Each structure stands twice: as C-alpha cells, then as structure tokens.
C-alpha cells in the first residue's frame, strides 16, 4: 500500500490516479469528509486527518510501504502557517513513517526551496526538505518548477482572469523566468523514484525543456485560448496593497503579498533531472496548455 498525502490537491490527485492505474493500493490522506468521499469514489482508501494530527498520521502510515508527501500550503491562514504545515507537518509525518518502518518516502519540495531563503514559503519548504534529507528512511526529494496540467492554480487562475477581463495584468516587469513542467511528467518522476531504490537518498530538480518569462507564459496562455487581451504591466508596489486586502478578505486570494515578492526570483534550474528520471525529454509547455480550453 502507498500513502499519498494531499490526495485532494492538484499534484496529489494526479499521483494517486497514476498509482491506482499502475495497480497499487492507495491510501489518501485528506482532511475533509467531502474530499474523503471524492477520494473513495476515485478508488482510494481515504484517511481523514490534518498533517498536524500525530494520531491520524500514525494510523495513516500503518501497513504502508511508501509515502508520497504532497501536502503544503502556498498561503497562510490562521493556525495554518508555513512553519506548521510545510515544515512541522513534514517532520511529524517523517516521524510516523520512520516508526512504522516505511521504506520509501517521496517528498514534493519546490525549486528554490532553501532553509535560508528570505521568502517564508520557500524557507519552510527548505526546512521541510532538510528534515526529509536527515531522516533515516529511503527518501527522494523532488524539486519541481511551476507545474502545469488540469487543475493547476497558476495557469488556471490566469485563464479565469482572462475570461472575466479584457485586460490581463502582468505583475512586476514580466521578466521573471520559469521552467514549467507537466504534471504528468512530475507524476512519472514520482513513479520512477518509487520504482527504483537507486533513487533513494537523492534530491532532484525537475523542470520542463523550455525557459519562459512570466510575460511569455501569459502570451502563450492567451494564444492557446485564442483570447486577444491587453497585457498591462502593473508594478509590484501597486499590487501589494491589493494583494494584502485579498489575503485579509478572501478565503482563496488570487495572489498574496508573499507570492508577489517571490516574483522577484527566477524559478529555473541548470541541473534538470527530469530527462534522466523519465528516460526521455519532458513535455514542453508550448502546446501543452490545451487543457485550459475546456
Ligand atoms: N503546483 C505547483 O506548481 C508546484 C510547484 C512546485 C512545487 N509544488 C509542491 O507540490 C506539492 C503539491 O502542490 P499542489 O499544487 O498539489 O498543492 P495543492 O493543490 O494546494 O494541494 C495541497 C494539498 O495539501 C492538503 N493540505 C493543505 N494543508 C493541509 C493540512 N494542514 N493537513 C492536511 N492536508 C493539508 C490540501 O488539502 P485540501 O484540499 O483540504 O486543502 C491539498 O490536498 C506541494 O508540496 C508544493 O509545494 C507545487
């Protein structure tokens, strides 16, 4: 049996489906009865629990050979802080997994994760990653750049915005560089890592074949959707109060001040392990956004 944490999330859903299709019995850690019911309909064994709940985690890892840990938050809310979820949650899960004798632990980190990062999200992901790499089990850390595919937040939100408005804002100078990777390729890397003990105790950057700026990505998205829109460069300083208000008022803000700040740093790698793990070149985001048309 394989435990997928965050089984209701974007990556977790795709990972769980691929594991099921490969014939594995999959337990999905979810935290709400509605998502548990959905997980059961997708053929998973749902396990209800917060990542902070030690007893739930102890039960979740029982009888499990491998864990794929995808739980993380990109925006904080109340007690759900980056430290509590992305770092402490990972530590708790590792502890439960090690005690239960779990053999393999594939951890979804993020490109740019760094325990010394000035950006709180990336710092918490770096701390989580460091905890995984210090653990006494067969871990593999995967550090994807931005991920595209059905259900993604980055392109999905931009697509929604372009449907609602004749103007698409590009926050900042639009020159931040990304190396998007397809969710199917991330999933294939997870399966490759699980399937070969040679990947234990290794950390891999994962990215697509192309580096595009934020502005080029918006352009690609609008071209894919056939929606000519005015692109408006909006200085970060102008957007900051708007993002702060969204963070205060909306349950799922379009963007937070923390996400705006991270637009200052490129999200690319010179050491992309995806071709090695996949045994082929990863798919390009160019021509890869057609799912947004539906
Ligand atoms: N998406 C990307 O472009 C991208 C890029 C680089 C790295 N990553 C990494 O990939 C992983 C998956 O990202 P994603 O895009 O799939 O995120 P996501 O769609 O937001 O999914 C996050 C999952 O974590 C669950 N979760 C959040 N807080 C929890 C808590 N306190 N207790 C239990 N479960 C909790 C969510 O449950 P609910 O459904 O109940 O909220 C959801 O199932 C993350 O580690 C992320 O850092 C993602």
Proper CATH architecture of the domain at 2-149 and 181-208 and 269-282: 3-Layer(aba) Sandwich
User: Which small molecules are bound?
Assistant: NADP nicotinamide-adenine-dinucleotide phosphate
Distance between the termini: 34 Å
Mean pLDDT: 96
Q: Biggest sheet, strands in spatial order?
A: 3-2-1-4-5-6-11
Largest sheet: 7 strands, parallel
State the order of secondary-structure elements, H for helix, E for strand. Answer: EHEHEHEHEHEEHEEEHEEHEHHH
CATH C-level name of the domain at 2-149 and 181-208 and 269-282: Alpha Beta
The whole-angstrom Rg is: 19 Å
Instruction: Find the CATH topology of the domain at 2-149 and 181-208 and 269-282.
Output: Rossmann fold
Structure notes:
Helix 5 links the parallel strand 5 and strand 6. The protein has 294 residues and is α/β, with parallel strands linked by helices. It has a 7-stranded parallel beta sheet with strand order 3-2-1-4-5-6-11, sandwiched between helices. Strands 7-10 form a two-stranded parallel ribbon. A two-stranded parallel sheet has the order 8-13. It contains 11 helices and 13 strands. Helix 1 packs across helix 7 and helix 6 crosses helix 8. 42% of the residues lie in helices and 18% in strands. The mean pLDDT is 96. It is globular, with a radius of gyration of 19 Å. The chain has a domain of 190 residues: 3-Layer(aba) Sandwich (Rossmann fold), CATH 3.40.50.720. NADP nicotinamide-adenine-dinucleotide phosphate (NAP) binds next to helix 1.
């Amino acid at each position: 049996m394989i435990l997928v944490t965050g089984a209701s999330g974007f990556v977790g859903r795709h990972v769980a489906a691929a594991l099921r299709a490969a014939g594995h019995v999959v337990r999905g850690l979810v935290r709400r009865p509605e998502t548990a019911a959905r997980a059961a309909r997708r053929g998973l064994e749902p396990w209800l629990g917060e990542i902070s709940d030690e007893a739930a985690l102890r039960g979740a890892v029982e009888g499990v050979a491998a864990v794929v840990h995808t739980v993380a938050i990109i925006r904080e809310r109340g007690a759900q802080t980056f430290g509590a979820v992305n770092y402490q949650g990972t530590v708790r899960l590792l502890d439960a997994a090690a005690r239960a004798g779990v053999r393999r632990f594939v951890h979804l980190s993020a490109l740019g994760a760094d325990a010394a990062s000035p950006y709180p999200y990336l710092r918490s992901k770096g701390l989580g990653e460091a905890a995984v790499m210090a653990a006494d089990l067969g871990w593999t850390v995967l550090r994807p750049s931005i991920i595209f595919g059905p259900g993604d937040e980055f392109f999905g939100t931009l697509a929604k915005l372009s449907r609602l408005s004749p103007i698409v804002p590009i926050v900042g100078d639009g020159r931040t560089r990304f190396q998007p990777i397809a969710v199917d390729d991330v999933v294939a890397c997870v399966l490759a890592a699980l399937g070969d003990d040679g990947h234990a105790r290794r950390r891999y950057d994962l990215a697509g074949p192309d580096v595009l700026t934020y502005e080029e990505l918006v352009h690609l998205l609008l071209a894919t959707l056939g929606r000519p829109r005015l692109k408006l460069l909006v200085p970060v300083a102008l957007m900051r109060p708007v993002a702060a208000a969204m963070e205060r008022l909306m349950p799922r803000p379009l963007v937070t001040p923390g996400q705006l700040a991270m637009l200052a740093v490129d999200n690319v790698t010179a050491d992309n392990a995806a071709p090695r793990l996949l045994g082929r070149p990863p798919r390009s985001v160019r021509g890869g956004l057609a799912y947004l048309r539906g």
